[in-house]
Amino acid sequence: MEYDPQYQGEEEQITEEERQARLDAEAARIAELREQDAQKFAEEDAAEAAKEKPADLTPDAPTEEPEEPEEPADTRVTGQESQDRFIETAQDVAGKVGDYVQLGREANMAVGAGAVDYIIDTTNMLTGAKIPKYKKFETKYAESVREISSFVVPNLLLGAGATRLGN
């Protein structure tokens, strides 16, 4: 019996012979289940094979000798072509890495930009000023984080301040 921290009773004590008998019984049960599964799969395969196959309705085509496959072209490159491929691949990878860096940079700036947007919106509303906001982010993800942050961050800060004043 495995250890169970929730078990309140006494642990069952069995002899080595009893333990071996239980293991043998379990092994026999598993072997029987495997045999049943093998029979079931064999019956399913036989039933599938017995199904009638639809007749081939395509007209008889003249039989042709199968062509021998052509030797694959030598795709190895050396010298300048190899260097050019390497540089091209490195530039592709660097471009993709740059895209992810830009996404991360925008995502990090989005939370702060959202809080600043709240301040600008509040100031414009209360004073009638026309303070412009920072430009929109290039990615939809960062812009969504910015819009959500313009609501969530001020509410968290105002809620924390109100809690302190209440104490």
Could you please describe the fold and organization of this structure?
The chain is mainly α and 167 residues long. Among the domains are: 33 residues; 78 residues, no CATH class. It has 3 helices and no strands. It is flat, with a radius of gyration of 37 Å.
- Subunit arrangement of the protein: single chain
Low-confidence stretches: none
Taking all Cα atoms into account, the compactness measure Rg is 37 Å
Number of DSSP E strands: 0
Measure the end-to-end span.
55 Å
Helix content: 55-70%
Class computed from helices, strands and strand pairing: mainly alpha
| Average residue-wise pLDDT | 81
Major sheet details: none
Q: Treating each run of at least 4 consecutive H or I residues as one helix, how many helices?
A: 3
Q: In what range is the share of β-strand residues?
A: under 5%
What string, H for helix and E for strand, traces the elements in order? Answer: HHH
Give the overall shape, derived from the CA principal axes.
flat
